[in-house]
UniProtKB/TrEMBL annotation:
Protein name: Uncharacterized protein
Organism name: Nitratireductor aquibiodomus RA22
Transmembrane feature ranges: none
One protein family per Pfam: TPR_4
Domain of life of the organism encoding this protein: Bacteria
Amino acid sequence: MFTEQRTNATANRITMTALALIMAVSVAGCARDRMTTGSISRSTPKAASNVATMSEPQLRSAADSLGRAYTQNTKDKATALRYASVLQMTGRVDQSLAVMRKLAIDHPKDREVLAAYGKALAAAGELQPALDAVRRAQTPEYPDWRLQSAEGAILDQLGQKDAARTLYRQALNLKPGEPSVLSNMGMSYLLEGDLKSAEHYMRQAVQASGADSRVRQNLALVVGLQGRFGEAEQLARQELSPEQAEANVAYLRSMLAQQNAWSQISDDNQKKRQ
């Protein structure tokens, strides 16, 4: 049995490692080749409709194309949403937030706009305003599982894990087996330092219909944080080139070594099983 202070210290180290890795993946994401499931036009604003699968050149091309379309009509909801999404994927978080802030002013009662605005605020670190925006978009009599999941993710970042997980469960009641919600639940446990539970939900997310590359890479992260680097690299190779997968795992090893986290994780996991 170990003390709560030690448990919290271990969880904090895991949290800092995980957050650093997530930040690194977000920054490096634009530089890696993404798995694509279909052709993506580079010449039209519609190119941004599946930004998670775009390579860096495609993102730059889409940002330029959407930027031109956006300046012609800043109130066009579809164009603004796609433009803000691409800007966020290219690391231009402040510009993405500016686009969404204006769109929320132009469409103050639109649930989709308010939800996207909340996510943009959260990405910029403005968590309380993000929470307000997402809650404003929700309607209790006809709840939207996407908004419940988004609110849960914000609450997790605010340290309110129990409230966050309640919302994830509610979202799963409305949308059973939804991989994005299962992945958010897994991330909730990851940030708490409960890697076994995190992996449980991540594996459910990966096996669910509609799981995308980001969900599978989250599983690789959780596996790697437990020191199973070979398995983590194998999972990463399904989404990235061998060189990129190896680089990601090397970075993970480096992060864990720098923070002396792996020995502590291994020790605590053994004691949890006793």
